[in-house]
Amino acid sequence: MRPLDGVTVVSLEHAIAAPFCTRQLADLGARVIKIERPKVGDFARGYDERVDGMSSHFAWTNRSKESLALDLKHHEAPAILEKILIQADVLVQNLAPGAADRMGLSYEALSQRYPGIIVCDISGYGNDGPYRDKKAYDLLIQAESGFVSITGTPESPAKAGCSIADIAAGMYAYTNILAALLQRGKTGKGAHIDVSMLEAMVEWMTYPLYYAFDGATPPPRAGASHATIFPYGPFAAGDGKTIILGLQNEREWDAFCRVVLVRPELATDERFASNSLRARHRAELTEIILATFSTLTVEAVVERLEQAQIANARMNDMLDVWNHPQLKARERWTSVQSPVGVIPALFPPGMPNAFEPRMDAIPALGQHSESILLELGYASSDVAKLRAEGAL
Question: The domain containing residue 272 runs over which residues?
Answer without folding.
Answer: 232-314
